[in-house]
Design brief:
- It contains 13 helices and 13 strands.
- By secondary structure, it is of the alpha+beta class.
- The longest helix has 22 residues.
- The chain starts with a strand and ends with a helix.
Amino acid sequence: MLTVDLRDDVAGLDWDARLCASTGGSIFQTEGWGRFWQAYLGARPRWLVVRDGRTVVGQLLFHEMLRGHESLLASGGSRLARLAGPLLKVFRWWQGPVIHDPDRRAEIMEAILSRLEALAARRRLCGIEEASLPLPGADETDVLGVFRSAGYRPEWRATILVDLTVGVDALWANLKKDVARTRVRKAQRQGLELARVDSLAALQEFHQLVTEWRREEGFPPYELARYGGMFEHLAPHCSFFLVRLQGEALAGMGVYDFNGRAHLVTPVTSRRARARQIYAGDFLHWEVMRWCHDQGCRVLDLAGVAASPGSTKEEGIRRFKGKWGGRQVRYRVFTRVRTPARWNLVTAARSARRSLRALRLG
């Protein structure tokens, strides 16, 4: 018989070590991830442990948090958060649960969703937002019916996964010649250098690159604490890199690496590099791919593309990420709306922000 234990901490559970016993265990289910979102967003981490007798057969980290998380902490959205935050809470998780008895995946998932629904009702939450299963995606058909029966709505997402188990020469050969290899060679001739961020000053340079890019795109800025928190809570599984030319930072990104799985974080190239046709972004992607390979990672997640591009920009992002020799993987996220009126408050706020951004960008 399965039992589902809800905990506020994971003391004595060897939580991360258990994650590493499964190929599906990722940084998004670690103790560090729980602490990071708690420190940065005030999200409350909760931990579910599923047992059959004394054997742990499943584990899930999820957060109780404001729907909209970062997007409502910036500018005017923060006022909505202060006024209505207690009414707009959701559960959310990424790439979980990690299930250690694959033959009972549907049964374990059903037990988890049942416990979450009871807790959501007691906490008077407005829903569960965009919960995702571990990647690279296994066949989801065995649990799809479980989610639907529990009132969840599935939606498609996509990302690009690069196989890092091959040699560096094969990685290079897998890049698209004209739009990847040629540009990396040009970047090397331009004298670009990769530098690992190892100081607060360098982290501030990365943050400035991100701030400039978000301003260009009409997005509110991220706080420096976002990246400082990653350094503090996700170490040693989080690194940041800058690309420099004669000392000037022209591009940067972060990388999560845990359990053989690497994930890119906020890759950004400066307007100065783009205007001068300096291929800093291409150089950065290739050098970070090589670094992940040298760290022994098995797979690199290029951090998402549109499952069905609806604009020229989305198609351009998919082409850029598709040139690095990976494969596109589609997966589902699952959402459960419990109180539509409260849920729609955030939906309306997001829509208004998108409209304002479109007006600012013309």
